Amino acid sequence: MSLPACPACGSEYTYEDGIQYVCPECAHEWNGDAPAEDDDGLVVKDAHGNLLQDGDTITVIKDLKIKGSSSVVKVGTKVKSIRLVEGDHNIDCKIDGVGAMKLKSEFVKKA
């Protein structure tokens, strides 16, 4: 049985320590059953289950009313260079004609 390479540095010299794997070169520890996560541990998926990352381009899949305004972000609006953040509204972005906004990942798809 071969052990997986280190997800942080790619080293093949990993070893098991109880239920975790350890890399002797960079000292990274991870659970072999857990899905891979970003460096900050934030995993954000769009409405279709695609993994989102900082800098991605997304498309709005539902008309979204802007709170405190009569404006609406229309379905099909493309948003470039998103930033992922913690919280309920986990996408921070700037929308042309609207300005800075926070969106929920369940209302967008990766473009």
Could you give the topology of this structure?
Layout: E1 15-17, E2 20-22, E3 29-31, E4 44-45, E5 51-52, E6 58-60, E7 64-65, E8 72-73, E9 78-79, E10 83-84, E11 91-95, E12 99-103, E13 108-110
- Cα gyration radius (Å): 19 Å
Total number of β-strand segments? 13
The share of residues in extended strands comes to 25-35%
Tell me the series of helices and strands, N- to C-terminal: EEEEEEEEEEEEE
Summarize the biggest pleated sheet. Answer: 3 strands, antiparallel
pLDDT averaged residue by residue: 88
CATH architecture of the largest domain: Roll
Structural class: mainly beta
Number of helices: 0
What is the helix fraction of residues, given as a range?
under 10%
Q: Identify the overall geometry.
A: elongated
Low-confidence stretches: none
Distance between the termini: 39 Å
Number of domains: 2
CATH homology-level superfamily of the largest domain: SH3 Domains
CATH class type of the largest domain: Mainly Beta
Question: CATH topology of the largest domain, anyone?
Answer: SH3 type barrels
What strand line-up does the widest sheet have?
1-2-3
What would you call the quaternary organization? single chain
Family: Belongs to the YjdM family.
Protein name: Protein YjdM
Domain Protein YjdM C-terminal: 44-111
Organism: Terasakiispira papahanaumokuakeensis
